[in-house]
Amino acid sequence: MKQLLALFFSLAAVPALADMADEVEHRYADSDGVRIHYAAAGEGPLVVMIHGFPDYWYSWRHQMYALQDRFKVAAIDQRGYNRSGQPQGVESYAMPLLVGDVAAVIAAEGAEKAIVVGHDWGGAVAWNIAMARPELVDLLVILNLPHPNGLAREMRNNPAQQANSQYARDFQQPGAHKMLTSEGLAGWVSDEDARARYVEAFERSDFEAMLNYYKANYPRPDSGEAGLTPPSPPKVRMPVLMFHGLDDQALLPAALNGTWNWLEQDLTLVTVPGAGHFVQQDAADLVSATLRSWLLQRRG
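^ thats the sequence. predicted structure below, dont judge the formating
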């Protein structure tokens, strides 16, 4: 398990903006009885940010700092994590419910739609809300999570991607959460102050819930399950900005090929050599500046 986690994390985070945690307002949305915590900052068009595994809202601190003067940013703790509700059972982490959590945050902010930003599992949720609830999504930003069609293709045909996805298969095994610790899950965070915050957040989290994302949504070998994508998903209707750290060993860049075939509007793809899976922290300045510029061109 330690080797699998090391393969998955493979990165070096930039120094943290420690004071960002003190500048945000902590709010809650109700998602059919599950309380979803999010950190909010700024005023303007709503930007909803969704983290992945193993992470929490603080992953977006650099981007929140960069956007808060022109946008209202709401960074979610996904269910199971940190201060959000932690319902029991694999079925409580099915993709339609995760999509509903984002919809609940948008509604809680009194908005009809939002710019949706997602990384890793948050990226999977972002793709799915864009396809299933397009009326809620103004613009779509994805970090290190290829379009579900591309990932499914690589899972079928690319031996390297199949091998590098073995960690997800192990996460699907009964009792896998018992191998996890707060300190181990925070091991990828290089900044000591940020790592301490992560440990505290993970101590408030539910490790079994974290792995329920994989059990409920990640395709199982030879199962024929649709997994991360619904059958014959519709094309994404809104403009898309994608970032991909090319040193990501969990999600190989070959899955990016053909993304444009599944979109109706323009795609901006930024590949980042030297950045790993957590590109929003590995290349924080590049991601923040590019994201801000792209958003201001469209909604400034």
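The two ends are 45 Å apart (CA to CA).
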